[in-house]
Amino acid sequence: MTTTKRHKASIPQGDMLKKSVQSKTWWKTYRRLLDKMPENIRRWNAALLAMQLGYGGMKIAGEICDLSQPTLHKARQELENGQVDWDSQRQRRSGGGR
User: Fold this and answer.
1) DSSP string, 31-83
2) pLDDT for residue 93 is more than 70
3) How many whole angstroms separate alpha carbon 75 and alpha carbon 70?
4) Which of 24, 65, 83, 86 could join 78 in a cystine, given CB atoms 3.0 to 4.6 angstroms apart?
5) Is pLDDT above 70 for 15?
6) Model-level pTM?
7) CA dihedral 78, 79, 84, 87 (to 10 degrees)
8) Backbone angles phi, psi at 73, to 5 degrees
9) Which residues, other chains included, contact 49 with Cβ-Cβ below 8 Å and sequence gap of 6+?
10) How confident is the model at residue 9 (pLDDT cuts 50, 70, 90)?
11) What's the distance, CA 50 to chain centroid?
C-alpha cells in the first residue's frame, strides 16, 4: 500500500499577502478573473480581498479591481450585514441604469 503525500497550499497572510498582491502577474490574473464576473460579485470579491489585506487593503483592492473606495465600502457593509445573494442573476437594482 502506497501513501501519497498531500501538499497543503499555503495562503499568504498579512504583509506577505500584500507583497504577493503587488506583483503584476497577480494583478493581471485577478483582473481576468474579475472581468468574467457580474458586477455585484466582482464588487463583493474585491471587498473580501480588501478585508483580507487588512490596513490599507481598501486602497490596494480598489487599485487592483479599478473600483472606487465608496463602492468597496458599500460592498463591505453588504458582506458584514449578510445582504449578499451570491446566486443573484440581476446586476442592477430594478430601475437602475438607464
Assistant:
1) HHHHHTS-HHHHHHHHHHHHHHH-TTHHHHHHHHHT--HHHHHHHHHHHHTT-
2) no
3) 9
4) 83
5) no
6) 0.68
7) 140
8) -65, -45
9) 21, 30, 57, 61, 64, 65
10) low
11) 7
Q: pLDDT tens, 31-40?
A: 888 888 888 8
Cell numbers linked to 35: 472581468
Q: For residue 57, what is its C-alpha cell?
A: 487593503
> Cell 483582473 belongs to which residue?
31
Q: What does DSSP assign to residue 86?
A: T
- Written as one letter, the residue type at 75 is A
Q: Which three cell numbers stand for residue 1?
A: 500500500
Q: Which residue has the higher pLDDT, 37 or 70?
A: 70
For residue 74, which of 24, 98, 40, 49 has the smallest C-alpha distance? 40
